[in-house]
Recover the amino acids of this structure.
């Protein structure tokens, strides 16, 4: 009878250290990774308390549980501390991992730096993901965030097909408070990527805005008017006309996107859509918003959507005199207790099925290996590492 031979899985070069560690564990520790610099350091802290904010972190301080999401040049993983007290090791976080070579190749250095700084500046807002720490190693940049276990609002919208007006009003009110904070209390931060996929739900059903990769602090010029920026970024269905025209845009683009979002909440689909993004752009700049006969949409809801989605941004609700305060006074939000919204006095209309603090069942399953593994050479280190010194 032939003996059974255990097969070990080769560990390819370029894997993230957390991924390599998982493969080594699967191999019973029989193969070491090819790059020694990628080995998480052996830590022997016993039950010494571990505070993630008390010192400079390394990837070896964490154990990867699973991937929560992937993007063009980033991966977000659910992680827990690898050491500390039992209470420390039971905590979970979301770790955003950015490969330096991809950040450079895709010309995202400024965006990544803005993201880290803005997340730090807005970390105390109740409806924005909470920045915990940032750090880096030879190949990667890391942003450690609170874990929001409920998954994307997009998933629930597809499940429900559409939200009733009370549900849409609840989520829209929390978004209004986010935009008020970003635009009016944080030096004119334009978020620039408002969409259901970037809105997660916490365990009580409240919104948490994530992914600040396109966010930018614009500020005001000498005359007090918002500074314009010209970068074409965002998701086609939610782009404001001025972004498409490339004539310069401001924080007003976020109010346009909120109008599109409310429409999608109430109907289940955005008002402008086509398989070809160029056709979407044409619809946005040329066509008015048309409301369906079914489902019924109230006059107040139609009005606030039209006022948000006004092509002339000087007349756009949220961007006109009075700012967010004017938005709060709109009839669509009649009866909303804004103080109660801010302090989360009521649970959200959808309560995610969270079984325990690290439960990830509300997120899709993603491949655990990155497709791109370009080497971060010494020439790149010399040329670009200065830009990553804040991590």
């Amino acid at each position: 009878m032939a003996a059974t031979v255990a097969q070990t899985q080769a560990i390819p070069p370029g894997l993230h250290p957390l991924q390599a560690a998982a493969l080594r564990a699967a191999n019973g520790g029989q193969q070491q990774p090819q790059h020694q610099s990628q080995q998480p350091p052996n830590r022997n802290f016993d039950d010494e308390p571990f505070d993630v904010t008390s010192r400079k972190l390394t990837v070896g301080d964490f154990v990867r549980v699973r991937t929560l999401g992937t993007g063009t040049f980033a991966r977000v993983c659910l992680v827990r501390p690898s050491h500390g007290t039992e209470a420390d090791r039971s905590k979970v976080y979301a770790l955003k991992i950015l490969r330096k070579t991809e950040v450079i190749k895709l010309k995202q250095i400024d965006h990544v730096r803005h993201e880290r700084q803005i997340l730090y500046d807005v970390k105390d807002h109740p409806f924005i993901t909470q920045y915990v720490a940032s750090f880096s190693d030879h190949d990667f940049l890391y942003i450690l965030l609170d874990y929001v276990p409920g998954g994307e609002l997009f998933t629930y919208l597809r499940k429900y097909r559409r939200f009733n007006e009370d549900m849409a009003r609840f989520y829209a009110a929390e978004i209004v408070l986010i935009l008020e904070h970003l635009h009016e209390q944080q030096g004119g931060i334009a978020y620039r990527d408002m969409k259901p996929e970037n809105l997660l739900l916490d365990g009580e059903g409240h919104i948490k805005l994530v992914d600040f990769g396109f966010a930018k602090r614009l500020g005001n010029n000498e005359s007090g008017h918002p500074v314009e920026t010209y970068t074409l970024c965002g998701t086609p269905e939610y782009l404001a006309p001025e972004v498409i025209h490339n004539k310069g845009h401001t924080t007003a683009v976020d109010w346009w996107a909120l109008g599109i979002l409310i429409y999608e909440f109430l109907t289940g689909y955005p008002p402008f859509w086509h398989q070809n993004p160029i056709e979407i752009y044409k619809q946005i700049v040329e066509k008015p918003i048309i409301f369906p006969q079914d489902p019924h949409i109230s006059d107040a809801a139609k009005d606030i959507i039209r006022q948000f989605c006004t092509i002339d941004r000087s007349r756009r609700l949220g961007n006109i005199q009075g700012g967010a305060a004017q938005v709060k006074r709109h009839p669509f939000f009649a009866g909303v207790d804004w103080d109660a919204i801010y302090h989360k006095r009521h649970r959200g209309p959808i309560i995610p099925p969270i079984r325990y603090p690290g439960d990830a069942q509300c997120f899709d399953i993603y491949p655990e290996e990155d497709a791109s593994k370009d080497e971060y050479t010494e020439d790149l280190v010399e040329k670009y590492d200065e830009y990553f010194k804040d991590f």
Summary: The longest strand covers residues 62-70. Strands lie at 62-70, 74-81, 93-99, 131-136, 140-146, 189-190, 199-201, 207-209, 216-217.
